[in-house]
Write a structure and sequence with these properties.
The chain is mostly beta strands and 427 residues long. 11% of the residues lie in helices and 40% in strands. The termini are far apart.
Length: 427
């Protein structure tokens, strides 16, 4: 267990879990009797939880933030030296001197470049040695000291700013030797890592049809042994079948709801996509704030589903003679009644919340809504096209947003992965 904070009591834990179920009722009660308002955003308090609901952005026309027209740094190319051929990037970090570190899972390495994008050194490699990786999933940096977290085994490997191996440790290995597979998605400035563990089928009873398994939010000490579970959150909707022989089938539920996760320096953001209501927890797992936008999710039509199938086939680009069969198979899928309220969230170094809107049928890149740390909606920021299609999962750590830069992963017209740095221009 983590000793620096005794954590909430079991009674508090039960209360937090219950909040996920009763929040819609709490918000309804808070709004009852309220006259229509022309306020840009409203702040209410319910049982010690601050609720901030925005009706429109604070930025006026011509105000707001933009990204530089061209990236200042581009790393990644279609051919050439191996150090510039990226494959399966799962993390990007900028060091204090401008160097850029990239966790390139395809090569099992952390590749480090100077501020202009020139390759400097590689760390790690595939294997079981003290500085090698099997399942590199997350890249972090503390005072220019890099660390890599591995999904299977829960190992942390630390490197000095000049690339020397410092130490390795196992985060989740218990006294019985059993290591749960836990995905890291962020860390707080006080040295606590934040991760999720998906509840497996053996841990609960599934029913035939639509299910939404929960996931546990964990915290662990980056520097000492110890981990504990904070609370549970809703996972991703899926269709379950039991074809026989002890087999459980997991099937895609189109437009199904999920949960996007992020951390700031001091808080944990949990964002179920059922509605635009993002919950902010402190390091102890106590709900402190809810950030809302007054807009209901759009209802799904049969035309939306057909468009999703067309776009999906276009993205996968199968041989022409296989397209008819793919379209027939897609017709057997089920889809939700409403679209998700948004797609993905991130938090920048200043504590601003970035929320990608749900664009079209969810396969197109949307604009990002930006909210101040207090929850007020500032406005929209356009991001250059080409962010990876899969976003919103812990292992897709594709973006770092600083006070004046955005560093992330894009794919070009040929599907080549590129790490780019854009300057944020704040008007």
């Amino acid at each position: 267990m983590i000793h620096q904070d005794p954590g909430p009591s079991s009674r508090d834990g039960a209360l937090r879990t219950l909040l996920f179920a009763i929040l819609p009722l709490v918000l309804l009660m808070a709004c009852q009797g309220r006259e229509p308002s022309t306020e840009t955003f409203l702040v209410a308090d319910s049982a010690g939880v601050t609720i901030v609901e925005s009706a429109r952005p604070l930025w006026e026309r011509g105000e707001g933030w933009t990204l530089s027209r061209e990236p200042e740094v581009v790393i990644g190319q279609v051919e050439g030296d191996e150090e510039y051929l990226l494959s399966g990037v799962t993390g990007v970090r900028r060091l204090s001197d401008g160097r850029i570190a990239i966790l390139d899972a395809g090569s099992y390495r952390v590749r480090v470049y100077d501020a202009s994008g020139r390759h400097l050194m590689d760390l790690g490699g595939e294997g079981d040695g003290p500085s090698e990786f099997r399942w590199p999933q997350f890249l972090g940096v503390v005072s220019d000291t890099l660390f890599v977290y591995e999904y299977v085994g829960g190992d942390l490997t630390w490197f000095s700013p000049d690339g020397q191996l410092l130490r390795t440790s196992s985060v989740f290995r218990g006294p019985d030797g059993v290591v749960p597979n836990v995905e890291m998605f962020g860390y707080l400035e006080d040295g606590l890592g934040i991760a999720i563990r998906h509840v497996a089928s053996r841990d609960r009873s599934y029913v035939e049809g639509l299910n939404r398994p929960s996931m546990q939010i964990w915290r662990f000490d980056l520097f000492n042994a110890g981990a504990d579970s904070l609370f549970s959150a809703p996972g991703y909707e899926q269709i379950i079948s039991f074809p026989g022989g002890g087999v459980t089938g997991h099937h895609l539920y189109v437009f199904g709801k999920g949960t996007s996760l992020a951390v700031s320096k001091t808080e944990i953001y949990v964002a179920p996509t059922d509605e635009f209501s993002i919950q902010v927890f402190d390091r102890g797992g106590i709900l402190r704030r809810i950030i809302r936008r007054n807009e209901a999710p759009r209802r799904v039509t049969a035309k939306d589903f057909d468009q999703w199938v067309d776009q999906r086939i276009e993205i996968l680009d199968p041989p022409r003679d296989e397209r008819a069969e793919m379209r027939r198979s897609a017709g057997e899928l089920s889809y939700a009644e409403t679209m998700p309220a948004f797609r993905w969230i991130a938090v920048d170094s200043e504590g601003d919340l970035w929320v990608e809107e749900w664009q079209g049928v969810g396969l197109d890149q949307g604009r990002f809504l930006v909210f101040r740390p207090d929850g007020a909606w500032l406005g929209y920021v356009e991001i250059p096209e080409g962010l990876p299609e899969s976003r919103g999962y812990p292992h897709q750590q594709v973006m770092e947003i600083g006070s004046d830069y955005l560093l992330g992963v894009w794919t070009d017209d040929y599907g080549v992965e590129q790490v780019r740095l854009y300057r944020i221009e704040k008007g």
